[in-house]
Amino acid sequence: MIKRLSDPALLDLLFPFHFILNEQLGFIQLGSSLQKLNSKLQVFEEDFDLVRPGLGIQYTFDSINSYSDQVFILRLKKSAAAILLKGQFVRIADEKKLLFVGSPWITNETVFEKTRLRIRDFALHDSLVDLLQHVKVQQMAVEDVNEMNQVLIQKNEQLVALNREMRDAREDLEIKNTELSKINTELDKFVYSISHDLRSPLLSIKGIIQLIPVKEKISGGAAKYLQMAEKSVNRLDQTIQEILDYSRNARLDLKLSSFSLVQMIEGIFADLRYANEYPVSFSLEVSGSTKIQSDKYRMDTLLKNVIGNAVKYRNPDSLEHWVKVSVSSRNNQHIIRVSDNGTGITEKSMPKIFDMFYRGSSSVSGTGLGLYICKEIVVRLEGTIEVESVYGVGSSFTITVPSAYQE
Fold this sequence. Notes:
Elements: H1 8-14, E1 19-21, E2 27-30, H2 32-37, H3 44-47, E3 48-52, H4 61-66, E4 72-76, E5 84-91, E6 98-104, H5 109-115, H6 127-215, H7 221-251, E7 256-260, H8 261-272, E8 280-287, E9 291-295, H9 296-312, E10 321-330, E11 333-340, H10 370-380, E12 384-390, E13 394-402
């Protein structure tokens, strides 16, 4: 706090960039050099930005007065040049007035030229004042570093807390994954056990139905009903067999062996040639080696499903139904392509055909598990399965699997 200023001219000589504020922070006196920068200053908050101190200070008389022991940096808003004033606020004794004493903070010649000031517009201070100002600047830098350190400490504490939460979440996820894996294993075992137990009496029923026409004379409506019962038993047996195939693929490890794809495909042709009431023309084209090292059971299930679908979904408008299979090998991979001239697949059904229980047509019996099982087997063998189809023309399934699967 300083005493009342009796000589404004002397104050202007010592501090040509000074200004005095009233209690409402309105300008009541401007230094001559400050007027050259902006002579129309009216309200402190509208004409200056408080660059420093930045935290906690407000545009009020009491707030600014409470920081009178610190160095202020003010940015002049309405000026052709980006002018910064550096100095201190001092309260005038017995009056509700604040005196700012300081000078422009000019860091290069370009900024100085934009101010249109001259050397005579600046106060000539002795070396002691310059030394005090230098000490204040150093103190300000230390305070800024300390403030930044506090921010870094807070951020570090937040990161530590976040890492702790992530670790807890990861441990919880591992526990849940272990529990889920156990539940899935138990479920697979349960499905396999139930399916196996159901199939045994079902096969007995199937055998009895097939023996009745041989042992007994059946005719008329009874024979028709017996055929319907046999078809129902066959559908149920197919469903149970597909569930068993799915369970085995999910439950059992790979069992690798070397075998011939040609022999396997020809065996499937033989099984399916008379499985349908309509004749089917099969053809097999081979290029390269037909020997493969893979899981024989899974490969047989995969090819039976794909070739079986090609037989099942025949086009009723075609005079001849054919299924073509090609086998080739390159780059340690076997490519098996199964094509037919059947009903084809609609565009709407294409994205869903590998989904569990999805059936694209109700005209042909099925469970909707076949292609889903195929997809799961191919994934287990680290291969791919792709389909191309035109509705009403036919479909082509391309299976790519490693020629020698590495455990």
